[in-house]
Design brief:
With 174 residues, this protein is of the alpha+beta class. Helices cover 28% and strands 41% of the residues. β1 (57-65) and β2 (74-82) form a beta hairpin. The protein binds copper (II) ion (CU).
Length: 174
């Protein structure tokens, strides 16, 4: 569209001046400007594309059920996406309002559902892990203060070889 407009502009200038040489010069000048202008977004895309700005690890949907009165140990569910091309190993999880946070996984042992501590959770490249009831969860110990439904708090995740990530966990009604 722009090229068409440029040509008709140049053509009208040519008609007025009746100088072909001037038309050719003007046309190449306008086309050069347009060509440069068209390339600009491509250069911008190189620096602002999603691939370069998207975090390599994304933590989302942090959720904890409100605890019964007197209890200060809870379970947190979330989703972790590793969109990088290397394995991410979770080395440490902590929060200002908890004494300790562990990664747990439910397993069946002799027909019994048991919880196992997973000290170094590995996330394969290009995978998403859903923490959910009956599978992986975070066990949060010694909550103080114990958050109520509607509250939220931050949990920090440290991964080997990746920047630390903070997840905001929302407390829901039981
Ligand atoms: Cu547990």
């Amino acid at each position: 569209m722009l090229f068409k407009q440029a040509f008709s502009f140049c053509y009208s200038v040519c008609v007025v001046t009746s100088k072909l040489k001037r038309f050719v010069l003007l046309a190449s000048y306008v086309l050069l400007i347009l060509a440069c202008k068209d390339k600009t977004p491509v250069v911008d895309d190189l620096f602002s594309s999603n691939e370069n700005t998207r975090p390599l690890l994304s933590l989302r949907s942090g959720l904890m059920k409100e605890l019964p009165p007197g209890q200060n140990i809870g379970a947190i569910y979330l989703q972790i996406e590793n969109s990088s091309d290397k394995t991410a190993v979770l080395t440490y999880v902590h929060s200002d309002i908890a004494e300790k946070i562990e990664v747990h996984r439910h397993i069946y042992n002799d027909g019994m559902m048991q919880m196992r501590n997973v000290p170094h959770l590995s996330l394969d490249p290009k995978t998403t892990l859903n923490f959910k009831p009956g599978e992986h969860h975070l066990m949060i110990f010694g909550l103080s203060p114990v958050p109520k439904a509607g509250d939220n708090f931050d949990v920090v995740f440290e991964f080997a070889g990746f920047p630390a990530q903070t997840l905001n966990v929302v407390v829901e009604k039981p």
